[in-house]
Design a protein that fits this description.
about 260 residues; alpha/beta; Rossmann fold; four-stranded antiparallel β-sheet; 10 helices; 10 strands; binds adenosine-5'-triphosphate; ATP binding; antibiotic resistance; nucleotide-binding; ABC_transporter_ATP-binding
Length: about 260
């Protein structure tokens, strides 16, 4: 792996019951980049991120994170990874602060270090008041935020986030953006998946567009956009079923609306 790459993915594949979900993904994520992974529903983003972070065993391919092979040397690799996965499972019967204390110890931090970092993260993410509330009683957005705090606690060099802004209120989203920006400016790397093109365009230095289990295009934001908005580039490369689907040109959905009832 080149020294400037935070993540190298080669020939990554996965099929479920014979149906290919990820079909030979190749990706190089430069160190210090803010890397967006976009693609339509079912494109294979979550499956790819799960394999890249060591949560799902690939059928084929290799992944290195910060120079460590995720599947050959999982401990070395996972020490360097922070992850906010899709459908995050949390210890529901712990309070937010307890969850961070537990995570800190799992990550090898001292109690004092964990407490200090946890206090700061709870404060910045607006969770101080809810710090002693059980996670089971958190809202969806609060769960995202406590999950993000847990992912950041050990200050990993590479952070993987699956839809980190989903269900998060605008004020918290702005805070998260600022936290992640300063995190990448200090040389750490963020890889995140999102459906919100404006957000990816505003935040990311690099983008990969994925469709049907493959990377359609990847590179710097400017290269991928090619002078257009990211949304236009996405639409051009991936297409909309209204213009490319089997009902195109046949007045798709003309029955919808103007109901007489
Ligand atoms: N555990 C599983 N068992 C069977 N099929 C699966 C499983 N996980 C994912 N798939 C299939 O793999 C394909 C890719 O799914 P994936 O969740 O990776 O897409 P995605 O790009 O993250 O989509 P979205 O944007 O909707 O979250 C889909 O066809 C999905 O049905």
């Amino acid at each position: 792996m080149t020294s400037s790459a935070a993540v190298e993915v080669r020939g990554l594949r996965k099929a479920f019951d014979g149906k290919v979900a990820v079909d030979g993904v190749e990706l190089t994520v430069p160190r210090g980049s803010f890397y967006g992974l976009v693609g339509p529903n079912g494109a294979g983003k979550t499956t790819s991120l799960s394999m890249i972070t060591g949560l799902l065993r690939p059928d084929a391919g290799t992944v290195t994170v910060a120079g460590h092979d995720v599947w050959q040397n999982p401990y070395e690799a996972k020490e360097r990874i922070g992850i906010l996965p899709e459908g995050l499972r949390l210890f529901e019967r712990l309070g937010g602060r307890e969850l961070l204390a537990y995570t800190g110890r799992l990550r090898g931090l001292t109690g004092a270090e964990t407490d200090e970092r946890a206090d700061q993260l709870l404060d910045v993410l607006g969770l101080t008041e809810a710090a002693d509330k059980l996670v089971v009683d958190y809202s969806t957005g609060m769960r995202k935020k406590i999950g993000l705090a847990a992912a950041l606690l050990h200050n990993p060099p590479v952070l993987f986030l699956d839809e980190p802004f989903e269900s998060v209120d605008p004020v918290s989203a702005q805070t998260i953006r600022e936290v992640l920006r300063s995190y990448t400016e200090s040389g750490s790397t963020v890889v995140f998946s999102s459906h919100v093109m404006e957000l990816v365009q505003a935040l990311c230095s690099h983008v990969a567009i994925m469709a049907d289990g493959r990377i359609v295009t990847a590179g710097t934001l400017d290269d991928v956009r090619g002078g257009r908005s990211l949304n236009d580039a996405f639409m051009e490369l991936v297409g909309s079923p209204l213009t490319t689907g089997k009902t195109k040109g046949k007045g798709a959905l003309q029955w919808l609306g103007s109901s007489s009832a």
